[in-house]
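User: Sequence in, structure out. Go.
Assistant: Echoing your sequence, followed by the structure tokens.
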Amino acid sequence: MNLPNRITITRICLIPVMMLALLVDFDFYPPPIEIGAFKLPYNQLIAAIIFLIAASTDGLDGYLARKNNMVTNLGKLLDPLADKLLVTAILVSLVEMGKIDSWIVVVIVSREFAVTGLRQIALLDGSVVAASNWGKLKTIIQIVAIVALLINNFPFVFLGIPFDLIAIWAAALVTIYSGIDYFVKNIHLLSSSKV
């Protein structure tokens, strides 16, 4: 259980804490932050902070594993799983809160698990499907969109710009494109796989 794997497991452990902060109505939360007609409940702000902390550990564990030659099979399995669990948990919560349409979440989550499946097939065949630039861009846009939705489009709400909606649409489109890109570039894994 090396440091990168501990960071990955910490990311997984932050998921229920984030969900608890976001979806459970605690009496001790103070009234929402209010600026004119804008309101931001503290539970959404806390969930956004926890989400950002968890998301920031994604690159850290992989970097440390590669830099210090600590790449393990456990890490190869847990790291993408932790990412998918984090994104899926928060997106499903946003559907529950009425902040995002469920079909967008189905599209994003389907792509995430399809690419994870492709990576697992590659691992079984002794190959690695490295993260592409489109995959990295997809992750950044998803994080930005999720945070924008969690903080109720602050500060763009004051400018009348629906940045949160634009960002989630951009995330969906880039997610679809990056998924297609992974499969086109790695189609040989499916045809030559023994699985």
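User: And one key feature?
Assistant: The longest strand covers residues 33-35.
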